[in-house]
From TrEMBL, chains A, B:
Stored PANTHER family: GLYCINE--TRNA LIGASE, GLYCYL-TRNA SYNTHETASE/DNA POLYMERASE SUBUNIT GAMMA-2
All residue ranges annotated as the Aminoacyl-transfer RNA synthetases class-II family profile domain in the record: 189-519
Protein name per Swiss-Prot or TrEMBL: glycine--tRNA ligase
Matching PROSITE patterns: AA_TRNA_LIGASE_II (PS50862)
EC number: 6.1.1.14
Amino acid sequence: MAATAKSSFSRAQFESLLKRRFFFTESFEIYRTAPNFQGDNRGLYDYGPPGCALQANIVGEWRNHFVIEENIMELDCTAITPADVLKTSGHVDKFADFMCRDPAKGEYLRADHLVKGVLETRLDNHAKVVAGQGKFTKLDNATVKDFEAILAQLDNYGGPELGELIERYDIRNPNGDGKVLPPVPFNLMFQSTIGPSAAAPIYLRPETAQGQFLNFQKLLEFRRGAMPFASACIGKSYRNEISPRSGLLRVREFLMAEIEHFVDPDTSKSHERFAEIANVQLPLLDRETQLSGSTNVRSVSIVEAVHGKTAAGKALVDNETLGYFLVRIYLYLLKIGADPSRMRFRQHLDNEMAHYASDCWDAELLTSYGWIECVGCADRSAYDLTVHAQHTGSSLHVEVTRPTPIEVDAWQAELDKKVLGPRFKKDAKKIETAVSALDQETLASLADELSQKAVITVPTAEPLANGDSSVQLSGDICTIQKVKRVEHTRKYIPNVIEPSFGIGRILYSVLEHVYWHRPGDVARGVLSLPILVAPTKVLIAPLSNNAALQPVSKNLAARLRRLRIANDVDSSSTSIGKRYARNDELGTPLGVTIDFETVENGSLTLRERDSMAQVRASEDEIVQAICSLVEGRETWADIYKRLPPFTSQGQDE
Amino acid sequence: MAATAKSSFSRAQFESLLKRRFFFTESFEIYRTAPNFQGDNRGLYDYGPPGCALQANIVGEWRNHFVIEENIMELDCTAITPADVLKTSGHVDKFADFMCRDPAKGEYLRADHLVKGVLETRLDNHAKVVAGQGKFTKLDNATVKDFEAILAQLDNYGGPELGELIERYDIRNPNGDGKVLPPVPFNLMFQSTIGPSAAAPIYLRPETAQGQFLNFQKLLEFRRGAMPFASACIGKSYRNEISPRSGLLRVREFLMAEIEHFVDPDTSKSHERFAEIANVQLPLLDRETQLSGSTNVRSVSIVEAVHGKTAAGKALVDNETLGYFLVRIYLYLLKIGADPSRMRFRQHLDNEMAHYASDCWDAELLTSYGWIECVGCADRSAYDLTVHAQHTGSSLHVEVTRPTPIEVDAWQAELDKKVLGPRFKKDAKKIETAVSALDQETLASLADELSQKAVITVPTAEPLANGDSSVQLSGDICTIQKVKRVEHTRKYIPNVIEPSFGIGRILYSVLEHVYWHRPGDVARGVLSLPILVAPTKVLIAPLSNNAALQPVSKNLAARLRRLRIANDVDSSSTSIGKRYARNDELGTPLGVTIDFETVENGSLTLRERDSMAQVRASEDEIVQAICSLVEGRETWADIYKRLPPFTSQGQDE
């Protein structure tokens, strides 16, 4: 089936199904089509009943698979975030894309997408000319090579480089062929203000992670000080994309589920439960392979990937914790319906990582838009906790008692308070704080400086009375010496491994993976969603709208509801085949028909979506079979083996 | 227990428990306490692990109780909303509170809260003087009466009236006694812009309802045209409160769960499943009772409330659909732990209803802050669908085939196209559209006008070439006549009954309801959360940290996880009594202890939180009992009856 689907996949057919069955719709559609609408609803989508139920089931299984199974501490943090927080995290300065304005059209274009689109078109046209298929401009060999090289490392370029490429290759807006202005950075966060004074700027969070980092000490306390531990947050995030396209894949408001796993870097990031998943094989595409110009995926067991060595003498995956999560992500995606043959884990190249990441593997799913990053699994090292601790002066570290105390050589700065007070007056306290905050490395270099120049400059967290944010201290007031110190505890800032799930992207990609159509009939689409996540589990369909059949279907619906099994009664007068076909498109795995035999002897038929096979048995047996399927205790093959098959009526057309 | 709790309730003790156990925390706390923080984090709260799990369970049960049980179509709509939508719905103009600025302090105060606070303080002080308890200003009898009258109808006052009261009674900022400026309206929606041009204004939604209304036609189609039906949306909404106080009860970002039940007004809003709940008794406080100056709640069966008549000859609750939802709300609140003796349904007074509502009953829970509106159940009539249809020109109505066609007298306007085109040129089309959009009522009055003045003015949806938004039409171009018409269908705009749940308010109020402390020890708090919503179902506690006990607790935890039962292993070296006490505060209903007898014969003890009673049995029996309790098949009384009690060790201290 999967092969049929892939070879004959039509995105138009597929998207028409999703819209017809109200999996999703553009938000505020009736406004966009209304006269005089000045707004912008691009990149905003509403999920309709089946999309919303599918999303709820995907999130529900995420909670089971991660939060409950890994005993993760879930948080619900606000999306509204004071600007200071995102200034510290680096998002205010760095979370931007470059855009070019086309003054003729008044359009804004994302600079890298513009370059990519135009160069790809030129290469395509060139290929057509070569193949004798059209009258386009032929390129010389050097230009073809240049274009290919540019496209291969597009993520490498910043604004100035993109501007240079646009200039050099006369890249113009494909819509109207107008020249564009040089790229300028555009921050992707939505900005607003909070409170009546409007003096306090806020952003809508672009990720859920920051809220988790800020709660680190409370989490550590909740876990009674035991490391490692993980927190999680499921919630909406916001990115003001310059020019959203690609349907559900690039949107401005989206659901994320993020885990922050905090780990002591001195434990080699080993993982307690690694042995449980050591032999699972993953499809890996590592950095070196990509740099060699290949995209060949290797199937490697995670124990080999973490504990074996590559030709370059390094492990393929850096540590057990990262490896453990890659496997758990893989198993989760399989459970909810992803096709393993269209799944890979790709390691980020150095230049494409976010500003906070030291390593990153993406779980990518292959769709008609290409390979889509659905889960990022980044090692954020100690970046975030460090910058927030520095900015706020709060403690965001772990302190553990050493099994045996150790004696260490440590640099120590001392201030002569008799001189300090009179000389610096009100600033004295701030200077004391600043000096005591100096770390060992800084102290070492200041000691050196002090011995050479007899004066050092120390930055202060708060500005001094004269407005300066640093102070000069001479040797008569400050001494820096190496001393012996007994340390009973060890302090460290945990490293963070972050599996970050884009739920909308996963949902869309899985829908592509489970979509196919009945052989020979592209109009008869089927979504083979696993029963675990299918929006509705059971269609209840009386064969005719004869009044005698109504009480049976009503009672059955109520019985299934009491078991919390989502079902839908379709008593419409359309043929049973059409009702089945509608539910195949909705991904409903099971269908129960009620006919006159039901009224006579209480038996029902149960149909399975993918095979269209049916069985017939008593209501109790059918309900028991449904429960067993929903709870994953039996497969359809099991049911079909043990209940009598049914072939006479109520067939698919 | 409930009585103990209420009589000795200390909010300080209670909130200290919630914060200590990380049910919630103020968001960005480490930033607020950092030097130089210029932001505003008031009214923003994060839920910690138990708060978040409780919230997830409350929402999960909401989905079962409403979405699955009532077969409601759930949507997930975006929070980002174009300004046009909220202009049409009335929120841009009317969703505001009045505020006064204190120029001396630079503070903004909500005007009604300011008047309320100051007058209540004056009355309190007066009462103390009368009782001989302090040296405050005594008030004369007329003033006392005035103040009481003002407080009773505070919701009645708009900005000018509040300004007059502030002037007349010299009401000042209690913080510093400064005079305040006159009240000005402050719109409560967070505003931003979308897209790089920043030309398109957006708001964060203040309710989830609008997204549902805009999808009405798609929902109707999904339901194959069958009425009535309901949609629902669970998601964050945002209100930029002027000065948030009262902890979780008045916040700027909050989770809502809203149902929009669309019903044909001609069916008297009857409800198919009304009979199932007809005899449920509800605690009702209707409008007439309140206007008579009483707050006495009557316990009335819903069938009597809907189908009986009050002394005034009206039904207490307007219709079956409203009544049905009131009962379903009541049953839901009971299930998740609300105390029925602290619950009431209060009908809104005319002047306190939202701008869109024609009737409204609030489910209120009594807390230490007074009666709190937790669920609003409003009849929004056809307001929203009507205004959106008018603004967009989209169809947001239902058209049903009449059993037998009817002949009706109808006003019909005709334009003489031979005159229209030449006279109005490019505007002709717009004028045709405007005339065809006129409803019967307008046509009737225009017919009258035309006969008297020979010219009428018709508003146009789009501005005309000269910029006018209406056109004058004379009798030579436009005729309006009454004609006979056969109608085969009936068109109507559905009315909407809207149960709207503030999840955060429910969560907080339920926590107050289930909180009590062990007799004689205020420091030993207990949260008697129903097992259905308790954050963690089972504490697993090895009696000592002897290595022999670890594998048992690990295996038991894994076994419960496989059954998707949230559990927590506490192997810390603190006494078992302290570990129980911590879990009582977390609301964990069950505790399993593992001791040396477990290693010998495999038996475990199971403790129940509220009674502290324990039983001892084999692991299989204990796990079976846990499942049975979690799934609601048995109560603790049942378990305690059938498993051997245990009293010897591992007791509460």
